[in-house]
Design goal:
The protein folds into three domains: 1-46 and 177-344, Rossmann fold (3-Layer(aba) Sandwich), CATH 3.40.50; 49-131, no CATH class; 142-175, no CATH class. The protein has 14 helices and 14 strands. The protein has helices at 24-34, 52-61, 67-76, 81-88, 101-112, 116-126, 159-166, 184-191, 203-211, 216-222, 245-255, 273-281, 291-296, 318-331, and strands at 5-8, 18-22, 41-45, 132-135, 142-147, 152-154, 170-176, 195-198, 226-230, 263-267, 300-304, 307-310, 313-316, 340-343. Residues 1-5 and 334-350 have low confidence and may be disordered.
């Protein structure tokens, strides 16, 4: 075997059990890449969203927000291209203007089902998804943010504007009601995983809400899995301005527990100057990696070229991110066998 190569087991059915925890577009993008390596995927997804089309359905129908769940199911779906287009279709006008058909599909199944998780399972069957998508809880929860000046705001969709107005950092977030009961299947997926991945996604509104559900942190701590936090590439305007990698880690430990994970994957691919300048004008920048403070928190930082620019926006590259995560799983002594090679040098050094 040539230097720099690493063997990886071929059959996806025998791939590692990977459980990802979070929400937002970053999570679904990562899932698209990971399903190329293993069929044993579980996504534990937040249900605190109350904005956009999801928020409207939540208000009108009293259901849990479908958006993040639907994105993950689409990422893992094995359907005809026409079905994918249908799920993505947004109505251009009328009372349904801006609403996504996939959300309405899940809303209909929710109306036919005894609980939201059953509706998600039924839609997963229709889409023949790889693995499983699980709401972290069936409870109807709201997200409350408290800022460093003591101001509080309730509602995930209101945090961005409130932070801009308060002009100070978020001190903590919590769920209302606090510590809702976790979906048992979500805790099982965490406990049985070979690799647990937090993120990528919005720190306070996509990742941390999962840690506030009863039993989630305890299940992570008691798991023997390889535990990795995938840090965002850029700071997020209205949420994490000025944050370093260690700031992200410290917030996760504060809301979860110290030692929740001991590896953090960050991006090493450079951001094009013109793209960085546009982000800077909007109050965002590449997240600075302060290695010593991360080490002080007990976390090893691993930097790999996992980002790319898509339509002018910096995003995690689905395939590159999945490959690096699988390599980390292999390099840390987990299950590795077979005759397939994944070469690190194949990964581009720049965007």
């Amino acid at each position: 075997m040539a230097e720099g190569q690493i063997a990886y087991h071929v059959p996806r059915a025998q791939g590692p059990k990977i459980t990802v925890i979070g929400g937002g577009n970053g999570l679904s993008s990562m899932l698209r890449g990971l399903k190329g390596y293993t069929e044993n995927l579980s996504a534990v997804v937040t249900v605190a969203d109350d904005g956009g089309g999801s928020g409207q359905l939540r208000q009108d129908l009293g259901m849990l927000p479908p958006g993040d769940i639907r994105n993950c199911m689409e990422a893992l779906a094995n359907t005809e291209p026409l079905m994918s287009e249908l799920l993505h279709y947004r109505f251009p006008e009328g009372k349904l203007a801006g609403q996504c058909f996939g959300n309405l599909f899940l809303a209909a199944l929710n109306g036919m089902s005894p609980s939201f998780d059953v509706a998600v399972r039924r839609m997963s069957q229709v889409l023949a998804i790889t693995g499983q998508v699980l709401p972290v809880t069936n409870a109807d929860v709201q997200l409350e943010a408290e800022f460093e000046n003591g101001t509080r705001i309730v509602g995930e969709s209101r945090i961005f504007q409130a932070k801009k107005q308060q002009d100070c950092r978020i001190r903590r977030v919590r769920l209302l009601p606090e510590r809702p009961e976790a979906l048992p299947e979500a805790l099982t997926a965490i406990r049985e995983a070979d690799m647990l991945i937090l993120g990528p996604g919005s720190l306070y509104t996509s990742i941390i809400p999962n840690l506030l559900v009863d039993g989630v942190v305890e299940s992570i701590l008691h798991s023997d899995a390889l535990k990795i936090y995938v840090c965002n590439v850029m700071t997020e305007d209205g949420e994490t301005e000025g944050y370093t990698v260690s700031d992200h880690i410290a917030a996760l430990f504060q809301h979860g527990a110290p030692g929740l994970f001991d590896l953090c994957l960050t991006n090493s691919a450079p951001i094009p100057r013109e793209i960085a300048a546009r982000y800077a004008a909007e109050g965002a920048e590449p997240i600075r990696c302060d290695l010593q403070r991360c080490a002080d928190l007990g976390v090893e930082v691993i930097s790999r070229p996992v980002a790319s620019v898509v339509d002018g926006f910096v995003r995690h590259h689905s395939a590159h991110l999945a490959r690096e995560l699988i390599l980390l799983h292999a390099e840390r002594g987990m299950r590795v066998a077979g005759d397939r090679f994944v070469k690190r040098e194949d990964a581009p050094g720049s965007i």
